[in-house]
Amino acid sequence: MDGLTTALLTFPLFLCVLSTAAVGAAVPPVYVFGDSTADVGTNNYLPGTSAKADFPHNGIDFPHRRPTGRFSNGYNGADFIDTSSKALTSPPVAPASSILPEAQSLLSMQLKQFAIVSSNISARVGVESADKLLSRSIFVISTGANDMIAFFARFGSVNTTQRDEFVATLISNYEDHITTLYKLGARKFAIVGVPKIGYCPSQRSVNPNGDCIKDLNVYASKFNKATEALMRKLCTTNERMKYSIGSTYQIVSSIMENPHKLGICSIPHKLTSKLAVEAFYTWSAPFVTPITFKELVEDDR
Ligand SMILES: *[C@@H]1O[C@H](CO)[C@@H](O)[C@H](O)[C@H]1NC(C)=O
Ligand SMILES: *[C@@H]1O[C@H](CO)[C@@H](O)[C@H](O)[C@H]1NC(C)=O
């Protein structure tokens, strides 16, 4: 599963943050820590990564119909996240990551890089302003899927004890990462849950009969529930923490169960991504809990 994993925060992130810090704009900066589902083509600029999407049919639904580096036929979720306006457009970042250090790319490496960014901001605008800036920044994290896919590729179907242990390990590592970000000044967390990854074309293609891999959907569901519990717990010990969790799992389920109700005839990634981000902004439970991304952005307490 090396092909799905790659790391590194990219240079545009630094630019985004520093320029916003410099002008003191009211628009909160957005940091995206994500996996390939949130990559807007950053991998094109990373030397030595095997995670590539620079070949057809990736990009087929763009006007020029060429691959962009997104692991998608068109725009993905990261393209539609933008807290500055109602027009949903792309932030300039989308690194790829996984939670566990076994995988080729590490969320922990991204956090080390973010620690540098954070100290760079302090050096430039002073500790107090840097704290203020980070406390109103939105930290989008979309991760976990690569870990599950890698685990399944390695061990196949395992019994429930082993499965639960694996999910617990993921969550424990996730807790460390989120706590690290909090210590670095992050306060507002926009968590994107793991979708029904058993339906990913890449996964179905490795299943001899082409069907979805149900086990992976179970992992995703368990992980999402555990993430909710984790965030509730973290809020009791980190009192300035705020969060919203968007459920791509629920979005994908609703689309698959009743696409016409949502005005969708087939399920192109681009439409699904746009719908998901809109849902996280303005819909309600079970699609986004306990508050919406919009409320998270606007919460200035
Ligand atoms: C950020 O900090 C690192 C380490 O302290 C330093 O090497 C780098 O030049 C700084 N970058 C900027 C843009 O100030
Ligand atoms: C699950 O599988 C592991 C490894 O094969 C085994 O040691 C363990 O006893 C199994 N647990 C259950 C409840 O079947």
TrEMBL record:
Gene3D superfamilies named in the record: SGNH hydrolase
InterPro entries in the cross-refs: GDSL (IPR001087), GDSL_Est/Lipase (IPR051058), SGNH_hydro_sf (IPR036514)
Residues making up the signal peptide according to the UniProt record: 1-26
GO biological process, one term: lipid catabolic process
Keyword DNA-binding on entry: no
Keyword Acetylation: no
Domain of life (superkingdom): Eukaryota
Keywords, alphabetical: Hydrolase, Lipid degradation, Lipid metabolism, Signal
GO MF assignments: hydrolase activity, acting on ester bonds
Family, similarity comment: Belongs to the 'GDSL' lipolytic enzyme family.
UniProt-recorded name of the protein: GDSL esterase/lipase
